[in-house]
Amino acid sequence: MTSLQLPQGKLLIGGNWEEAENGSTFATVNPANQQTIANVAEAGAADVGRAVNAARKALREGAWPQMTGAQRGRILYRMAALLCAQSESVAVLESVDAGKPLAATRRQDIAAAIDCLEYYAGWADKINGEVIPARNDALTYVRREPVGVVAAIVPWNFPLMNAVWKIAPALACGCTVVLKPAELTPLSALTLGQIALEAGLPPGVLNVVPGFGPVAGQALIEHPDVDKISFTGSPAVGKQIMRYAAGSVKRVGLELGGKSPNIVFADADLDAAVRASASGIFFNAGQVCSAGSRILVHKDCYDEFVDRLKLRASRIRLGDPLDPETTMGPLISRKQQQRVLDYVAIGQEEGATLVCGGQAGPNAGYFVEPTVFAGVRNDMQIAREEIFGPVAAVIPFQDENEAVAIANDSPYSLAAAVWTRNAARAHRVAHAIRAGTVWINTYGHTDTRLPWGGCGGDSGTGRDLGRAAIDNYTEVKTVWLNLAAA
Q1: Alpha-helical runs (H) found in 209-330
Q2: What is the CATH number of domain 261-449?
Q3: Mean pLDDT value of segment 381-410
C-alpha cells in the first residue's frame, strides 16, 4: 500500500492555490478513529466570489473558449490517466477521509471516476448541432453551446465519484466549474484539482472551494454569475437551492434522496436476492442514496428471507477502512451515527421487530452495527424516511398489486429492484414502479453510459451520466440565415 499523500490544503482559484481570504481553516476527520487528517482552507463568501469570477473569465477569455472539442477531450483523457497512475494513493485518501473500506473504494469509486472521465473525453468532439430545413429561402440550424459557469456541489458519501460525474460532462461541453465538496470529505476534490492542473486544464476552468453549506454553498448558489447548479445531497438542501435559484432563474439539476423498494417475489432465487439485498443496504454503511432500505418480501418466503438476511448481517466485519478484513466502515460523523441510532429507537417504539444490530460499534469511530427490522409496515417512520445508514426495513406483501402499491407509496423515486424468475412479471412491475432506475434480479449497479436520477419528489429532478448529461451543460441556439438577402 502506498503512503498517504495529502493534497494541497488551500483553495484552488484561477489556477492558483490560495489561502482563504480571512485565513480560516477547518479540520477533516477520519470517521473510523476521530483523528484529524488535515486542516483545510475554509472558503467564505468572498473566496467563492473570486472563484466564480475566475470561472467567468476563463469562460470568456484565454485558451479554454478557443479549444476544439478534441482538445478538451485530450485534457480529460490526461486527467483519467493521471488519476489512474495515482489511483492507490487517492483510494487510501478517500477511504480515510470518508470511512470507506479500501477494497470497495478501489473497486467502485476510483474505477468509476476514471471511467467517467474517459467516457466524456470521448464525447467532447461529438457534441453536434443540427441543420433543420425550415424554409427554402433560409439556412436554419441549431448549435449547442456551453451553459456557462457551473456550480457543482457534491456530497460526502461518494466524494470523488460524484465530483467527476459533474465535472467531466461540464468540461466536455466547454463549461467552467466551481466545485464545492462536502466539508466532511474535501480531500479528494483538492486532489482532483491538482490532477486537472497537471493535465493542462487552463486556469480558472476548474476551481475548488471547500467550505460549509450555509456560507460557501449559499454564496455559490446565489452568485449572479453562476449559470447552472448541479447538486447531489439531501432533499431539504435541494429544495432550498431551488428556492434561491428561482431569484435569478438559474438552471438546476438535483439528485437527492431515496427510500428504494427492493421487491422479492416467492419465485426469486433467494440466495441471490438475499446476497444482493444485504449489499444493497449495507454497502458503504447504508450511506447510499439508492440504498435498498425498504425490502418488500412475499409472505410465502418472508420468514426464510429474514433469517438469511440476519445471517449475512452477522458476518459483516466492522473496522478500520484500511484493514483488508473490514467489510463495513463507520458512518461519516457523530451526528450521522446518532441520527441512525435514533431511528433504531423509533423503529422499536413503532412496534417493528429488531432482528439484529441496532447498536453503536465497539470501535472508537462512528460505527453502527448492520441492523435488520422485521414486521415493518410502510406507514412507519423507518419505512418512510431516509435513514442513510445500515438499517433494513423488511416489509411483507401478499401479491403483485400490493407490492407495487407499497413501492410507489413514498415521496422518493430514485431506484427500485424486482426479484423474480417470471420475465413477464419482472417487466410489468419494473414499468409500474415510479423510479429512475429499476434493477431486475440484481441491485445497485450504475454505469457512466446510463442516465441516473429520480422522477421528482424528494429524489430530485434531472439526470446525471450518459447522453442525458450533455443536455445538462449545453444551451441550444437556433441560427437563421436569410438566403434571399442580397
Answers
A1: 218-222, 235-246, 270-282, 302-314
A2: 3.40.309.10
A3: 98
